[in-house]
Amino acid sequence: MDDLVQLEQVSRRYPMDHSFVAALEDVSFRIRRGEFLAVAGPSGSGKSTLLNLIGCIDQPTSGRIFVEGTDTSRLSAAELARLRRNKIGFVFQTFNLIPVFTAFENVEYPLLLQRLPDRDRRRRVGEALESVGLAGRAGHRPDLLSGGERQRVAVARAIVHRPALVLADEPTANLDTRNATQLIDLMHELNRNLGLTFLFSTHDQRLLERAERVIPLCDGRVEAAAVSR
Known about the structure:
By secondary structure, the protein is α/β, with parallel strands linked by helices.
């Protein structure tokens, strides 16, 4: 597997009064294409900050992040938006679905941003919903779906534009045991069958047990070398 993402001594600090607070300090590791990789650590360890940096939602205070060989620190705001739109899929613990949109319309939204033709959009949305087992729920709005179904719609939306990387921030946090287990199985199946690269933040032991590698974070630092499985 070749490197998809590379972090070189990445730090993120936020100003506070007359000083600063460090959310991440000197983090370096690589994500290989096709990996199923976890970032683990307690609340406040910097997991979400790390995913936001890799997803180009935020920028590091120091250090560099490369996505498919591109130094993201050299990109303009428009270029960063294009990279997020074309290369990265996001799954959030709170689902972040548009409440007035149907499941179909929520999944379709990234393709509208890419200005794909109508026929291609419909085909891809149908395939994405089928892959997460929700082809029969395409016309339902989020308020008519269970928590597990809403998260599956979020996964379909994250993969519909065929990203190089899917970032999932605590994806099982708001799910009961049955739905969490089903979601873990689904993500692992998409990784195995479609070759999608997943990086997820979690402290869910069930999800950590399925990861190929675990990056342990504590107080914004990688505690030790990544654990291989």
